[in-house]
Amino acid sequence: MEPTDSCPSDQSLPFGQVSLALARAIAAGDLAAAERCFGPDACLITPDATAVSGLAGISPILAQLIDAGTVIEVETGSLVRAGELALASERLHFRSRGAPYRQTFAANTVLRRQGGDWRVAIAAPWGWGG
């Protein structure tokens, strides 16, 4: 698939498309496209369960993933939509340049429709909770 420069605007919210757009942007090394997948007040839960809010905090984490040559494979799971919000549960398989193994996480994402596009409001790509 070709890298995308925006997140899906399809009102039916094709399942997994936001995560796929983000994964493609990271694999392509396109920080600006990765940032566009997040809303301006988004929250990203890091592997150590730290909540990082806003693009100013999230952007350096995205840059680290890009610098590490991270490839993310998205395995769709379930989706519940309520108006302008959606909750997605997926399995993400992370691989980095030079790493002989991959790590798999049960990811949770809250999406919000903003200006006709679906964007990440809360992302826990490395899992969340106990």
Q: How is this structure best described in words?
A:
This protein has helices at about 15-30, 30-35, 55-65; strands spanning about 40-45, 50-55, 70-80, 85-95, 105-115, 115-125. The chain has about 130 residues and is an alpha+beta fold. It has one domain (about 15-125): Nuclear Transport Factor 2, Chain: A. It has a six-stranded mixed β-sheet with strand order 2-1-6-5-4-3. The chain is globular and about 40 Å long. It starts with 16 loop residues before the first helix and ends in a 6-residue tail after the last strand. Mean pLDDT is about 85; it is low at about 1-5.
What distinguishing features does this structure have?
Nuclear Transport Factor 2, Chain: A, 42% strand, disordered N terminus, alpha+beta, 3 helices, 24% helix
Put simply, the count of helices is 3
Low-confidence stretches: 1-5
Number of self-contained structural domains: 1
CATH C-level name: Alpha Beta
Rg result? 13 Å
Envelope shape: globular
User: How helical, in percent, are the residues?
Assistant: 10-25%
Structural class: alpha+beta
For the largest sheet, list the strands in their spatial order. Answer: 2-1-6-5-4-3
Portion in strands: 35-45%
How many angstroms does the end-to-end distance come to? 35 Å
Largest sheet: 6 strands, mixed
Q: How is the CATH topology named?
A: Nuclear Transport Factor 2, Chain: A
Mean pLDDT: 86
Order of helices and strands: HHEEHEEEE
Give a topology summary.
Blueprint: H1 17-28, H2 31-36, E1 38-45, E2 51-53, H3 55-67, E3 71-82, E4 85-95, E5 103-114, E6 117-124
Parallel strand pairs: 1-6
Antiparallel strand pairs: 1-2, 3-4, 4-5, 5-6
